[in-house]
């Protein structure tokens, strides 16, 4: 039994109603809630003094706090967690929200990356928060590969997949590469890779390099090794985290320290530094999960809430996740069904295009 559940058992009906009303009023307005506000809302008529006593008890329990010297209270992180677990009433998905999300999938394009980008943009627009979409690894067979020189120390591996998807991955090539060695390396790989996925390839290609070392010159050999490194390592993280709606949080107000924490959060996300942390959120199985404030390491510095749900492919395997980042004062009852529906929508889209 959690701490929140223990406290919930200790509360009488009046305490529960006062607590629920305080949290609901705070989530609606963002302002501290005073006893006079509650006297008009409670189902039973009680005095403001009685309500103040109940609120003091709730503060002693760690569920409410006083942000200023005013008599108003706001829920603590523990209070928000208890509200989400024990009092939250999740609404049905609004038809307007559903329509906006559905419209992102009107295209018949097989470009999953482009569709997920549109889903992320729509999710941010609907929720007025920041959206995150973790895209699946691309597992379609490869049709063709090219190396493209961008300068002495920069090159691209261009991967063209059988389903039309194209990925460009930037890497640092070995010194001394020539157009001839790039063509030779690409020809060597294209003879091996057609019809195989990235997951199929690494062991086979390393074995082929060993067996056919005489057929490929030193420069081309080094380039093949570099290309393998970029799609085995960097490729796993390549553009897999789509973040949209950053401005929604930055424009939401707060003092400078709050804004700086939010900037730090998004800078980390844009550098993909914590993508493994985000991946771990999808491992607990189906359903929407809510992380409030410091409950999740990735978002603790910004004091934000993350509402996240994994999505699955046709084989019911978790392959990615969608989520919304917002302030802890989030309209949870509205956001949860939006995230849940978006995850189901993305899963169906991925399965239909597999």
Topology:
Blueprint: H1 3-10, H2 13-29, H3 35-39, H4 48-60, E1 64-65, E2 74-75, H5 77-86, H6 95-102, H7 112-127, E3 130-134, E4 142-151, E5 154-161, E6 166-171, H8 179-193, H9 198-211, H10 218-237, E7 241-244, H11 246-250, H12 256-270, H13 275-280, E8 289-292, H14 297-300, E9 304-312, E10 318-327, H15 332-353
Antiparallel strand pairs: 1-2, 3-7, 3-10, 4-5, 5-6, 8-9, 9-10
Labels describing this entry:
single chain; 354 residues; alpha+beta; Arc Repressor Mutant, subunit A; Beta-Lactamase; Enolase-like, domain 1; 3 domains; five-stranded antiparallel beta sheet; three-stranded antiparallel beta sheet; 15 helices; 17% strand
Q: What features would you describe in this structure?
A:
Helices cover 50% and strands 17% of the residues. By secondary structure, it is an alpha+beta fold. It has a 5-stranded antiparallel β-sheet with strand order 7-3-10-9-8, sandwiched between helices. Strands 4-5-6 form a 3-stranded antiparallel β-sheet. Strands 1-2 form a two-stranded antiparallel ribbon. A hairpin with a 4-residue loop joins β5 (154-161) and β6. The chain starts with a helix and ends with a helix. Mean pLDDT is 79; it is low at 233-238.
